[in-house]
Amino acid sequence: MFAMRGIAVSFSIFFILYSVLSVAICLVWRRLWLYGQQQPARQCADLLFILRMVPFVVATGVTLVFAVPSFLLLEPRAVEESMGAGAVMLGCCGMAVMLAGAWKAAAALVRVTRTVARWSSEARVIDSCDVGYQQPVAVMRTSAAAPPLTAAGILRPRVWLSGAAEFVLTERELQSALRHEVVHVRRRDNLRKLLLRLVAFPGLARLESAWRQATEMAADDAAVSNASEALDLAAAVIKLSRLTPFVPPAELTTALVHSPAESVNARVERLIAWTERRQTPSKRYSLGYTLCAAVALVATLTVTYSEVLVRVHAATEWLVR
Question: E strands, 132-227, where?
């Protein structure tokens, strides 16, 4: 009975925090997105991703750091205390959220694994792209069944290039397009897509769509360093968008052209209007500020942790009843 109460309380706290924070993000993300659009595309994409992950990270952290220890340390084990229906229902909802997220993530992994295996049946390595601090990424030539140009894989990412795309693109256009996909690999955007499957919540689909568009623009900006390269990438986007009819992209992949026509047009217009201002390094906060904030947070928790656990336990006692 003690273990069941602990599980119910933990998942109840998680579900309450996760739901409240997710609803709050639903209400405010558009305003923060408008602010983010005034910043470089990379920062806008990172802001949207952090906003999307905040409810899950905070709810999980509070549950593991406060709710679980307070119950284990302060809850009497010998007392046979019945649980209210509310606690049981909230606990079941929290467990359902976790299981649903794990199921979506696992299903997406299975589907992309099968898709990549199908592409690999007739593929061969033709080149490799250097991503900087990691090992070079292999470029695979695939059959016509695969997208014209896409990056797939999480642990061992590869860039997949169809023969048709290789034929229609000039050498400079192809290099710009490959750099675009390498940026996705370096930023681990496919891993981020997997995490978004894990934290699925109703009502946040538009936020995720805005994040995907921002990642494409961030990759565009990082792939070019002058107006000539921007025009080459814009030409590659236009050519590949006309190469095949639009089809939904494979899950956990980042194709050069996979968005609706409106988004593709916006990217092309951005590239044509390329300016060096986008390449200006953004201000970065010193690591020392982050370390100071972390030390201050740890010190505060150390001093107040016992009192906080008592208050959290009192709240969970009310919840159980």
Answer: 137-142, 149-152, 158-162
Phi-psi bin for 146: left (phi > 0), alpha (psi -120 to 50), beta?
beta
pTM, entire model: 0.86
Q: Which two tokens stand for residue 306?
A: 């016992």
Strands (E), 153-259: 158-162, 253-255
- In sequence order, which residues have a C-beta less than 8 Å from that of residue 289 and are 6 or more positions away? none
Q: Which of 29, 31, 20 is nearest to 51 (CA)?
A: 29
Q: What residue numbers bound the domain in which 11 lies?
A: 2-320
Question: What interhelical angle do 171-186 and 189-198 show, nearest 10?
Answer: 40
Domains contained in the chain, number:
1
Q: Are 50 and 199 in contact (CB under 8 A)?
A: no
Cα separation of 131 and 185, whole Å?
8
Residue 15: what pLDDT? 94
First-to-last C-alpha distance (Å) of the chain: 15
**Burial group, residue 21, by CB count within 10 angstroms (0-12, 13-18, 19+):** middle
Tokens 């946040």 belong to residue: 204
Give the chain's residues under pLDDT 70.
78-83, 127-135, 143-146, 244-249, 259-262, 276-287, 320-321
